[in-house]
Amino acid sequence: MDHILSEKIKNKEAKVGVVGLGYVGLPLAVELANSGFNVFGIDICEEKINMLKSKKSYVIDINSEVIEELIDKKLSVGSDFTIVSNLDIVIICVPTPLNEAKEPDLSYIVDSVKEIRRYLKKRTLIILESTTYPGTTEELIINSIEEEKSFKIGKDFFVCYSPERVDPGNKKFNITNTPKVIGGATKTCLELGILLYSSFVEKIVPVSCIKVAEMVKLFENTFRSINIALVNELTQTLERIGINIWEVIDAASTKPFGFFTFYPGPGIGGHCIPLDPIYLSWKAKKSNYYNRFIELASDINSNMPRYVVSQVTDILNNLGKCIRESNILLVGVAYKKDIDDLRESPAIEIFNLLEEKGASVSYYDTYISYFTNNGKVVYSIELTEEILNEFDLVIITTNHSNIDYEFILSNSEIVYDTRNVTSKYSSDKSILLGRHINSYTH
Ligand SMILES: NC(=O)c1ccc[n+]([C@@H]2O[C@H](COP(=O)([O-])OP(=O)(O)OC[C@H]3O[C@@H](n4cnc5c(N)ncnc54)[C@H](O)[C@@H]3O)[C@@H](O)[C@H]2O)c1
């Protein structure tokens, strides 16, 4: 154990930097500051830095009052990496998207590590939290610092990988009560990482090495992607057989062992489930292994918006209408309930597919008042009786908890519900995702 750094961590005297203040980095910086550390948040996005400096939060799980309490006291923010020379710990939370060829884009990690390396002093602990394929931390952080600075890992600097498992919008599980998996490059690295996280996380799960920690996160999200794909495929199968998938899932979920509940939907979104499995399959391909499960799940999930549109075509057809010139309202454009994140949202794809087919599309979202779509700013409509009456079809694409679905049902001509939020009202105006449309009598 490095006694100087470990004492600093124990006494909360270690200065901690968080690089990348987004959905992951900002809550982490807040948690560290709340637990007593002096935290320095670094982000290249001037707009975010300015918002934080004016005491405003842009992350849904963090209230502006929290920022107001911490800013310029326990939490300082800026875009300048020179601060790294003053830090004892640097935690990296930058994006790991896919590039146009649908391959891992590690440029954000590379860029931030380049800056960190430039100002890095000896005895600093670096932790990567961004999701990535096994081997990244070693290749892009450890090797690059050893080569460029002639520092020795475990002696001159310390490195861990600890995947962020935060679920934005989740009211029950947060950073402190979600077990934290961590792998270290050496025994000392791991011990330091455990010491840091155990000061604000209830349960730490150490693993034998960094690659295992990197793989844990990919496994978790691949597991979700594949299971969601299974129910999405079953939804389409059961539509043909004429069985209600939602009822099947509810009944199957009563089994107290050996079954995990996943629901179908209009597709998957966000920065994790659609992307993380691709990081794994890309890495596997490098070793000449082809993950058929991952590719198949990705294929099924990414085709769900098209399935939704095909059901919409059938619904309108039954009403003697077609998509062209229909007035369609999407309720919810965020990729999942109770958050304001539009990244990879299937609702946006449905929006565009319907517009391409000539529909006039509007949306309503209690979390997103406007967004830019194909260079055009689109605003959420007001939800009134008169406005609802104007639509030929309402599609529920995201199941935010603060929406009055009963009001929507009673004032709409017909509602296509891809999230099963309307069945409890037993209205004949509601059609669930996966229902066999031709058997529908309106
Ligand atoms: N969003 C989630 O639910 C979630 C959950 C678990 C893990 N993750 C992973 O965490 C990582 C971050 O995701 P996120 O959702 O917080 O992304 P985000 O886009 O919300 O935030 C990333 C931040 O990093 C900043 N940034 C980019 N390059 C930078 C650089 N060179 N230096 C400093 N700042 C830089 C961006 O400006 C942005 O503010 C990703 O790897 C993601 O897969 C995300």
What key phrases describe this protein's structure?
442 residues, alpha/beta, Rossmann fold, 2 domains, eight-stranded mixed beta sheet, five-stranded parallel beta sheet, 15 strands, 39% helix, binds nicotinamide-adenine-dinucleotide, oxidoreductase, oxidoreductase activity, acting on the CH-CH group of donors, NAD or NADP as acceptor
Please summarize the sheet with the most strands: 8 strands, mixed
What is the CATH C-level name of the largest domain?
Alpha Beta
Q: Helix/strand-derived class?
A: alpha/beta
**Widest sheet: strand ordering:** 3-2-1-4-5-6-7-8
User: How many helices does DSSP assign?
Assistant: 15
By CATH, the architecture of the largest domain is named 3-Layer(aba) Sandwich
Shape: elongated
Poorly predicted regions: none
Average pLDDT: 96
Radius of gyration, in Å, reads 24 Å
Count of all domains: 2
| CATH topology title of the largest domain | Rossmann fold
Question: Can you say what the CATH homologous superfamily of the largest domain is?
Answer: NAD(P)-binding Rossmann-like Domain
- State the end-to-end CA separation: 71 Å
Describe this structure in words.
Keywords: NAD, Oxidoreductase. This is UDP-N-acetyl-D-glucosamine 6-dehydrogenase. It comes from Alkalithermobacter paradoxus. The model has no long low-confidence stretch (mean pLDDT 96). The strands form 3 sheets. An 8-stranded mixed β-sheet has the order 3-2-1-4-5-6-7-8, sandwiched between helices. The protein has 2 domains: 206 residues, Rossmann fold, CATH 3.40.50.720; 214 residues, Rossmann fold. Helix 5 packs parallel to helix 6, helix 8 packs across helix 10 and helix 12 crosses helix 13. The N and C termini lie far apart (71 Å). It has 442 residues and is an alpha/beta fold. Helix content is 39%, strand content 14%. Bound molecules: nicotinamide-adenine-dinucleotide. The site of nicotinamide-adenine-dinucleotide has 26 residues, from helix 5. Nicotinamide-adenine-dinucleotide binds next to helix 5.
